[in-house]
Amino acid sequence: MGAPFSKVAPQYPLITAAVNQINSSGLLSCDTHQRLRFAQWNALAGKQSWDRSYCGAGLNYFKFGISFLGDAAWQNESQNDLCRLLHEGAAACSFTLGENKACLQYASDIITNAAFDVSLVGHYLYIRSLETLGRFSDGLNHSLGVFEKLGFHFPTQLSPRDKMSTLERTKEAIYSKTFEELTEPRQHMPTLTRNVYKLMDACYISANRIASPILPILACSIINFSLENGLCGESCCAYVLLGVMRMGMGKFNEIPYYTRIVLAVLDSSPTSSTTIRRARSICYNYLSILHFPFKETEVLLRTLVKEALRYGDTESAYESLRNISALSVFTGEKLSTVMVSLNNVISHMTKVKKMKQSLQLVLLDKLLVTSWMSSDEVGPTIDALIEKHKTTNQAWDMELTLYTRFFVAFWNDEHETTLFVLNDLLSMNLRAPLKYVHFKFYHGIIAFQQYRNGEGEGWLDQGKDCLEKFKVWSSLSATNFESKLLILEAEYQASESDISAAKTIFQSAARVARNNGLINDQALACKLYGQFLISIVEYQEAISWLSLSKSSFKDWGATHLQEKVENTIQTLIEENNLQDVETSACNLKHDRDTNVD
């Protein structure tokens, strides 16, 4: 929004006091000159309220300003800009307050009545409102229409090979410039250029939610536009998306460079911008997540929450809180603490109308944690959600719901369900990095076990593919992924019948997981090692390691998983007339200095 005055504006308390008196006096029937002046004052009071994150007050002032001008203002050339500013302000405040239908109407008025080159803010808010209303296809189609009017042209049909070629050419175009050239601060970026970038920010969520095939082409087009016109904070969304797509092509070693570019540009951008905060959030959750330690990502997201709340940006704040909770599900944090966090996020999001779509994702995480803590009966609930998603075009929701079902089935030893959902996920274009890496972790474990169960060489190949991925990911962040790599390596050695190597590496995996604070990985390593020992008829040693697993699950707060391991131990003892030994074959508390090759 721009200011309707060129003169120095009165201080906020003075202008609002005057405007409040005018608005309460019922002067809507005054002459045209006064109505114009009162509309200008309301525009100024609204802008100053917006700048202070007083969105409710701001919306009230903008609405009064619109009333003073009347509908004829759009046809009056001298009043058109003021009318547009008032509608932009009303739309922005309505959107922030979660009044999406009102935002849609104000934005629609701008689109209908203002010249196209000055209506892009209206288009941006219109697209964001469609997104929060769950109208993803409508939002994307509107976005593409706007981009075409701006001179962008997107092929209607491209083969996967053509898309990969486009991504490769875009990557080469980026690498043809130096880091300094790419990240040079642009203090005077033309408004039109910034608004083009903001349109990308507006539509990427809709495109992602429905898995639109146009998204890679759209991102590449915006990047090539930015290479000609300069990067700024608003352009970073496209670079994050390119990084995610390059991940999908297996180009994981490129990710730190894209992260470095994006964060350098964002660090030189104003922190007051909602678009900048959104770009930072998707960078932390989709790009840097693979090479920043998980705890560091959590700290960065908490900083973003504080920053967003300082500017009254509840959407960014709650999205970041959601992402913190989603991260904590996989980082070994005490599950009772995770559940409190999830419930707090759910409570906050329930009160904000425009967070309805994100709320569904938090509920999935809660179902997963519930399955670990108290019950394995969440499966039917998730199955019902899967059936519901089959009737919609929301591929993102389906992907995340299938992930949740897969994780629940894996941890609860639902063998047939695990394999069934595994096949569904393997048939999709997967795009959620945090959940994808855990999916490939569990996929690798299942594959090696299937091979050892005589299900064919194909499973061994799948397991080795997962193992190779974790070698790359562990090189990016050993803190996050080394214990998972070791577990997969141990499973591989077991599959190759190298019993000695498998034993050594299983033990190393448990130690590394403990040292990195990943109690969930430690519990799993001990459980898998115990199961391997059972398979080679070393029952007493198996009981020791399963007991360690049970203890680790208890420390994690996974009571239900703890009980399942206890049942395994008791069954093993009863069927083989064994002694219940609760000691470890290796001392996890004192072997911190052991080196693992």
Kindly state the mean pLDDT as a whole number? 90
Major sheet size, sense and barrel closure: none
What is the helix tally?
Answer: 28
Q: Proportion of β residues?
A: under 5%
State the secondary-structure class.
mainly alpha
Total beta strands: 0
- Tell me the helix content: over 70%
Quaternary structure type: single chain
What Rg do the Cα atoms give?
Answer: 28 Å
Report, as a whole number of angstroms, the end-to-end distance: 59 Å
**Spans of 5+ residues with little confidence (pLDDT < 50)?**
1-8, 583-587, 592-597
Form type: elongated
InterPro entries: Hybrid_Histidine_Kinase
Structure overview:
With 597 residues, the protein is mostly helical. Among the domains are: 12-114, no CATH class; 123-291, no CATH class; 433-576, Serine Threonine Protein Phosphatase 5, Tetratricopeptide repeat (Alpha Horseshoe), CATH 1.25.40. The chain is 73% helix and 0% strand. The protein has 28 helices and no strands. The chain has helices at residues 12-24, 32-51, 55-69, 77-96, 100-113, 120-132, 136-149, 160-175, 179-183, 191-209, 215-229, 236-248, 255-267, 274-287, 294-310, 314-328, 335-350, 356-373, 379-389, 395-411, 415-426, 433-452, 457-476, 478-495, 499-515, 519-535, 539-556, 559-576. Helix 18 packs parallel to helix 20 (395-411). The longest helix is centred in the first third of the chain and has 20 residues, at 32-51. The model is unreliable at 1-8, 583-587 and 592-597 (pLDDT under 50).
